[in-house]
Write a structure and sequence with these properties.
single chain; 364 residues; TIM Barrel; 2 domains; five-stranded parallel beta sheet; two-stranded parallel sheet; 15 helices; 11 strands
Length: 364
């Protein structure tokens, strides 16, 4: 199923009324003192003031919902800002009910195609039953050459508009609920990272470009990076960066403002990372005030270079079993760079191997 037309976010009074029971429920269950306490724990961890060994916060008490929250499928949330709000706020409700240790947070949840669609990439939805975020189709090289000639595109094209509009609407929606406004963070959409976006725009032809047309790839990376920065600056007009220099992402706190994605980097050598990815991530971090990086799969061949970037404060990685954990430690905790949401089994392996984690690991 392919989206051919995307509408701006519009919400009627009747639709807002539909959300009131859920907003009232969440507002009544958010305990200011408990949420302030867990934020202070996260802030101490993010800023290096945590004095423990392993960081795994939990709420002091659970708070069950007073109403039944519905399950919202991804495709329904894409079509309705009301369903989007229920999907995102429902996760906050579950966090309170389970007494979890993550911060309450929501985002404009339109998936990886946000910035590719700004360039004109066609959005492709998965089947409704799969309950999975959409992806996008690659563009032709000729289309991308034209994009490079034209410069930064209209940031409100495709899902770019939907994500910005949803952010603005979330901001207004929370205005009448002081606990939600104070304790539910609105974090930036999935803007991916420069090379990840290029891979979505080029498809598998990207890997030929590295060898056969590196000048084109650098030109595309430069444009993507400029667009990323422009989009994030536009987002920051909706949600200004915090004055204390930290940001919430996926319910976790890190120094800086952005969460880069390097999922494509596992397919490149360390040298290629330094040539094709590192300069553009440096530009983003320097311009936007630092941040963190996420990657799936193997990253031990580029993580040392990534964490050498000024302003890189934390790493969120999955599948540590595919990595040399000695290298991961030297690139992160040994340098005071934090590991976020690190699987407990991997933490146990590090401790058993005698690694001093220095209070820089958040345990999933």
């Amino acid at each position: 199923m392919v989206d051919s037309a995307l509408s701006p976010v519009t919400v009627s009074a009747e639709q807002r009324h539909e959300l009131e029971p859920y907003l009232d429920d969440l507002e009544s269950r958010i305990d200011d003192s408990q949420e302030s306490a867990i934020f202070e724990q996260w802030q101490a961890f993010a800023t290096g003031a945590f004095t423990g060994d392993l960081f795994k916060p939990v709420r002091s008490r659970k708070s069950a919902p007073t109403i039944s929250w519905p399950r919202i499928y991804v495709n329904d949330a894409l079509d309705s800002i009301v369903f989007m709000a229920l999907q995102q706020l429902g996760a906050c409700s579950s966090q309170l009910a389970n007494g979890g240790g993550y911060l309450l947070s929501v985002r404009s949840n339109y998936g990886t195609p946000i910035l590719p669609s700004v360039f004109g990439a066609e959005i492709f939805r998965m089947e409704h039953s799969q309950d999975t975020l959409p992806c996008s189709r690659a563009m032709t090289k000729e289309q991308l050459r034209t994009a490079i000639e034209h410069g930064v595109p209209d940031l409100r094209h495709g899902f770019g508009r939907a994500a910005l509009d949803a952010g603005e609407w979330f901001s207004t929606l929370f205005a009448d609920y002081p606990n939600i406004k104070k304790h539910v963070a609105l974090y930036h959409p999935d803007t991916q990272g420069p090379m990840d976006i290029c891979e979505m725009l080029r498809g598998s032809d990207l890997f030929e470009d590295v060898y056969e047309d590196p000048l084109f790839l650098h030109a595309l990376l430069a444009l993507v990076t400029q667009t990323y920065i422009a989009y994030m600056k536009r987002w920051q007009k909706i949600v200004p960066p915090r004055a204390d220099g930290v940001a919430v992402h996926w319910g976790m706190l890190h120094r800086g403002t952005v969460m880069l994605r390097d999922d494509s980097a596992m397919n490149f050598s360390g040298r290629m990372y330094e040539e094709f990815i590192m300069p553009y991530e440096r530009q983003i971090l320097d311009t936007l005030g630092g941040g963190a990086v996420h990657f799936c799969g193997r990253g031990d061949h580029f993580v040392m270079a990534a964490t050498s970037l000024h302003g890189m404060a934390a790493v969120n990685m999955t599948q540590p079993e595919f990595n040399n954990l000695d290298i991961i430690c030297r690139a992160t905790v040994d340098k005071g760079i934090q590991l976020l949401d690190f699987p407990a089994r991997a933490v146990e392996a590090l401790v058993a191997a005698g690694h001093d984690l220095g209070g820089n690991v958040h345990v999933a």
